[in-house]
Amino acid sequence: MTGAVTDARTDAAETVSDTMRERFASVTSRLLDEDPRLAVVLAEIGRDGFADAARRHPDRVVNVGIREQLLIGVGGGLALTGLRPVLHTFASFLVERPFEQVKLDFGHQGVGGVLVSAGGSYDWPSGGFTHMAPGDVGLLDTLDGWTVHVPGHPDEAETLLRRAAAAGDDKVYVRLSVQVNEAPRPVDGVRFLTLREGRGGVVVAVGPMLDNVLAATGGMDVTVLYATTVRPFDTATLRAAIGTGGAAKVAIVEPYLAGTSTRFANEALEDLPHRVVGLGVGRQELRRYGGIDEHLAGHGLDPHSLRERIAGFLGR
């Protein structure tokens, strides 16, 4: 199961030397050597990547087996002892299945930890809908105080993972994917990056959606912002990109459920005339396995579809 996800790479992923999950395992293993406060909790998935670390730190690398609710419970318990737990499995098993434990064992108990997911919305189509979680970020939005990172490249994943591991007692979700952008950007775990400037509207590309957005908006007079930290939502950069012109038009392209971040953009611009559209994964389940590119096209997230949808929204 683990190998199938690791090997399900897009063409873009093959341009980098490792996947986000492989970088997660190597970086976190090194952090275990450096930080005695860090602990890793697994639910069978990903155990091979931590085999060496488990031999070096048997008391701080815990595999609970295929028991996802216990995964969260153990992580919350370790946090109560003063450790900084890093928990990992597929997004559907990390956020959706044990959501009550996430709500209670971290939120209600007032402790922090780092949830690191794999699988995303459709990274492993042949795994079926049980291994897809397009609603994970939206579900965490019902809880208070979660930081959410969505890297688009293994180098960005490393930066954000290191930041999350050292983040005191904060609650952090890091959403890894086999979809990657061709090149990393200098992310800081706080701000959106301005990659293009234009006057016709603003397009916010989240994580691995960036390359498709750049291709889709080529030649358009639009500002493109790159977001790898989506919670807290970077209100300041979005407002600066809008400027003081007429009615603002903002399109948010996300690799999870369409519209997940539109509320935050609307709140950021509530005192200004504006329109916001959320482009992302649709609510209709695509029941044929296919491949990642076919799922992107099926949800209108390939460059051609995005260009038509963004241009239509901007009135071009």
Automatic annotation (TrEMBL):
The lineage of its organism: Bacteria, Bacillati, Actinomycetota, Actinomycetes, Kitasatosporales. SUPFAM superfamilies: Thiamin diphosphate-binding fold (THDP-binding), TK C-terminal domain-like. This is Transketolase. One of its GO terms (molecular function) is magnesium ion binding. PANTHER family: PYRUVATE DEHYDROGENASE E1 COMPONENT, TRANSKETOLASE-LIKE PYRIMIDINE-BINDING DOMAIN-CONTAINING PROTEIN. InterPro entries: PDH/Transketolase, THDP-binding, Transketo_C/PFOR_II, Transketolase-like_Pyr-bd. Residues 18-184 form the Transketolase-like pyrimidine-binding domain.
